[in-house]
Design goal:
Blueprint (H helix, E strand, L loop, with lengths): L2 H7 L2 H7 L2 H18 L18 H12 L7 E6 L8 H15 L4 E6 H4 L11 E8 L3 H15 L1 E3 L2 E6 L1 H35 L2 H25 L9 H29 L4 H28 L7 H32 L8 H7 L6 H6 L11 H12 L1 H16 L7 E2 L11 H12 L8 E6 L4 H12 L4 E9 L3 E8 L6 H12 L5 E6 H35 L3 H13 L1 H12 L4 H4 L7 E2 L2 H31 L2 H31 L4 H33 L8 H10 L19 H13 L1
Parallel strand pairs: 6-11
Antiparallel strand pairs: 1-3, 1-5, 2-3, 4-5, 7-9, 7-10, 8-9
Helix pairs in contact: 2-11, 3-9, 3-12, 8-9, 8-10, 8-25, 9-10, 9-12, 10-11, 10-12, 10-25, 11-12, 11-20, 11-24, 15-25, 15-26, 16-22, 16-26, 19-20, 20-21, 20-24, 21-24, 21-26, 22-26, 24-25, 24-26, 25-26
């Protein structure tokens, strides 16, 4: 190839990222080191809540009660076990009084009360051998956690005739945060070596396998630094770190796989290193950019929700996607510039071939050895031909199968996270289990009604009687009086957040009163959370759909392909949603997976899983469509282009999906149920998308739609010609005037057809 032609093929971006490769990598190393420093301790600044809507009635009521009546909102419970003696035994009562006195004097503790002071039956177990001391730790989540760390070792354990265990909402959240941090470290220790082994199998070359892993580590460390900065301004959920690890490794590996594969393909075709990088960035690089945008948009849609639990995943997701793409488009080309053909060094498959073994499976098809020719991916090509020959059958059977897998989701029940998210041996869960099973009603799970405004004593009493007469009310305490405010504690029958308690929330809010009333409590928080999600969900889905349609149109220039992409991506999620209900709500496989089913799904989890899984599905969709589009622009042959696209990317997408699934399964080994559900659910969605939707539905549907797949009205065609981006570099065949198909495309198509 002449120097002139080489210069023409090396664009400005290529010159920028390859001009000083050593300097670029050194700068990246320094920035990564700074990110390690800046992101250190980020988990300690994160919260373990965030399911409440900040502008909801329940949130307002909770804030007023915490200010005016700290005793009404206990978040720390000491379970006092008197052993064989009754809790009313004088020695037990005296020890309990000493505990209450000591606890009241602790800094950060307000509103201490106990069964022995109030003699409330709700604070004593039904067998009379356990009772509760209730208190409130003030401040934010981090401050409350610090206080708990200080006092829990002092109060837990044996005190004279009693045994004390520490529980309550603040203990549940704090223990959940600690377990998530431990589990995340274990997941990383599992995922990193397994991922490296899989990458070596995919690439053959140990050198090439290290590149995606390096990109992922840079993205993860950079995102931790970004999250550390965000915690200075707003709350961030500790759960978001799981997404950082999963997407940091998964997407970085996807992007690096795509870029390194294309680079090695160009080298094998005889291109010089800088030219190969230029071609790779103009083709695979554009695809990575489109993919990153689609995933980022899907995750950004969670910003419309008020709960900081969901918004945290948007912060983490957007940061890790953009950093992974930046590392793949800036640092990776610099590394490839230094390596050149040495990217194929330490090719383990060559060692196997010397011993008479041959690579097989998805790995060999995903990344051919240098010099491997048109036969690369021929198995996928034959498979695509087979699918398109029976396109109606594959389209109908696959669609019906996916819909059937999603049917259990029609019976979904939404709830709220509680102590049963934790492993059965967690102390805070053990305390809550004792309370749930051994105490009358649901101490700590009742409802509080706030009354604001001047009223006569008789009006307060009359309102109390009306509350007590409502269906589903076990008992009412109060009113507790303050300066122009009062509150009632209402104990619902049944589960604290069951349907009966949620109905009672609505009844209490509708009950007329001579003063302003508002309701809070676990059931009220759930009602408000469900309403907030239902109110914002159409906006989130609309953002994802509209932006996805636009981006895929800019990539393909087709009106039909973006619609197909949205519908097929949605179908790829049905198995995930069906499995979530069948397994985690209904409790199937709970013994095998070591979790306790609560009979419902935490309200925000389906939203989170939809946004993440939809974005990842688009990631693989863009990879496939870009190669189909590139070949269609080159040849104008629709069916050949679909076959070519699947042949070139089928093994690559499958390998990337398997690697990402391994990472998500590692996350799914968490002892916290919501994290387990997130990891295993998205792993299933990724595999279904890569192995079913991309392999069966996409070629079948594109065969059925034929050449009309690429149609667009004249105004949109003009818009795409001006603003659209494509992975292809040549002029579209259909625009040449003669519609001729190159002879090499004819020969390749005939070879594939004959082989099938």
């Amino acid at each position: 190839m002449s120097e002139v032609n080489s210069a023409e093929r090396v664009g400005g971006w290529t010159r920028f990222v390859t001009a000083r490769p050593r300097l670029a990598l050194l700068a990246a190393l320094l920035v990564t080191a700074l990110a390690v420093f800046a992101g250190g301790g980020v988990a300690d600044r994160m919260g373990s809540g965030g399911w409440e809507a900040p502008d909801a009635e329940s949130t307002y009521t909770t804030q007023v009660l915490q200010r005016e009546f700290p005793d009404s909102q206990p978040n720390l419970l000491l379970l006092v076990d008197s052993g064989s003696a009754p809790v009313d035994d004088p020695a037990v009562a005296a020890e309990a009084a000493r505990l209450v006195e000591r606890l009241s004097a602790e800094p950060g503790i307000t509103g201490v009360g106990s069964y022995w002071q109030a003699k409330s039956p709700a604070l004593r177990s039904e067998d009379g051998h356990e009772a509760l001391v209730a208190a409130r730790i003030g401040g934010d989540e981090k401050g409350a956690g610090d206080v708990l760390d200080r006092i829990a070792p002092v109060y837990a354990g044996t005190h004279g005739p009693v045994e004390v265990s520490v529980g309550g909402p603040v203990a549940v959240r704090h223990e959940m945060q600690s377990i998530i941090q431990e589990d995340l470290l274990r997941a990383e220790l599992i995922a990193l070596p397994v991922t490296l082994v899989l990458l070596v199998m995919v690439f053959g070359s140990a050198i090439a396998a290290l590149l995606p892993l390096a990109v992922g580590i840079v993205a993860i460390l950079g995102t931790n630094a970004v999250l550390r900065g965000i915690t200075e301004f707003t709350d961030v959920s500790v759960f978001a770190q799981n997404l950082t690890t999963a997407l940091g490794l998964g997407l970085a590996i996807d992007y690096a796989l795509f870029i390194v594969r294309r680079f090695r393909e160009e080298l094998a075709a005889g291109a010089e290193t800088r030219v190969a990088i230029g071609t790779t960035l103009r083709t695979a690089g554009r695809t990575v950019l489109f993919s990153a945008l689609t995933v980022a948009v899907s995750l950004a849609a969670m910003m419309v929700f008020p709960q900081y639990f969901l918004r945290s995943f948007a912060y983490a997701g957007i940061a890790v996607v953009l950093l992974a793409a930046a590392a793949a488009l800036i640092l990776l080309p610099a590394a490839l510039m230094l390596l050149g053909p040495r990217v194929n060094s330490l090719d383990l498959r060559r060692l196997l071939r010397r011993r008479g073994a041959a690579p097989s499976g998805a790995a060999s098809e995903a990344m051919p050895a240098e010099g491997q020719g048109a036969g690369q991916g021929s198995g996928w090509a034959r498979f695509a031909v087979l699918v398109m020959r029976r396109a109606p059958v594959f389209a109908v059977v696959t669609t019906v199968g996916l819909v059937l897998l999603g049917l259990p989701f029609l019976g979904v029940k939404f709830g709220t996270a509680d102590d049963r998210q934790l492993p059965a041996t967690a102390e805070s869960r053990v305390v809550q289990e004792h309370i749930r099973e051994g105490f009358p009603g649901s101490p700590g799970g009742g409802l509080e009604v706030l009354a604001e405004g001047a009223a006569r004593a008789g009006q307060y009493t009359a309102f109390r009687e009306r509350i007590a007469a409502l269906p589903g009310v076990r008992g009412v305490d109060g009113p507790g009086m303050g300066d122009g405010v009062a509150f009632y504690s209402v104990l619902p029958e049944g589960e604290a957040v069951g349907q009966g308690a949620q109905d009672l929330v609505r009844e209490l809010r509708a009950e007329p009163a001579p003063f302003d009333t508002s309701v809070t409590g676990a059931a009220a928080v759930l009602v408000d959370s469900k309403e907030a999600i239902a109110d914002r969900l159409p906006w989130a889905v609309g953002i994802i759909v509209v932006v996805t349609l636009l981006l895929v149109f800019l990539l393909t220039g087709s009106v039909l392909i973006p619609l197909q992409a949205v519908v097929l991506n949605a179908l790829s999620l049905t198995a995930m949603f069906g499995a979530v209900v069948w397994v985690f709500q209904d409790g199937n496989l709970s013994g095998l997976l070591s979790f306790t089913s609560t009979g419902d799904i935490e309200t925000t989890l389906p939203v989170l899983m939809f946004c993440v899984a939809f974005g990842l599905s688009m990631d693989y969709g863009v990879f496939l469509l870009s190669r189909i589009k590139e070949e269609y622009d080159r040849t104008g042959d629709h069916e050949h282009s679909v076959t070519f696209g699947l042949r070139r990317t089928g093994g690559l997408i499958t390998a990337a999906a398997v690697i990402l699934a391994v990472v998500m399964v590692a996350i799914g080994t968490s002892r916290v149920t919501n994290t387990k559900m997130l990891g295993l659910g998205i792993a299933l969605a990724v595999l279904m998308d890569a192995m079913v939707v991309r392999s069966l539905l996409v070629p079948a549907v594109m065969k059925l739609t034929g050449r009309v797949t690429w149609w667009a009205p004249a105004p949109l065609r003009a818009f795409h010609q001006r603003f659209g981006l494509s992975e292809g570099e040549r002029e579209p065949a259909g625009s040449r005037g003669d519609g001729a198909i190159p002879e090499d495309a004819d020969r390749e198509r005939d070879k594939i057809t004959a082989g099938a």
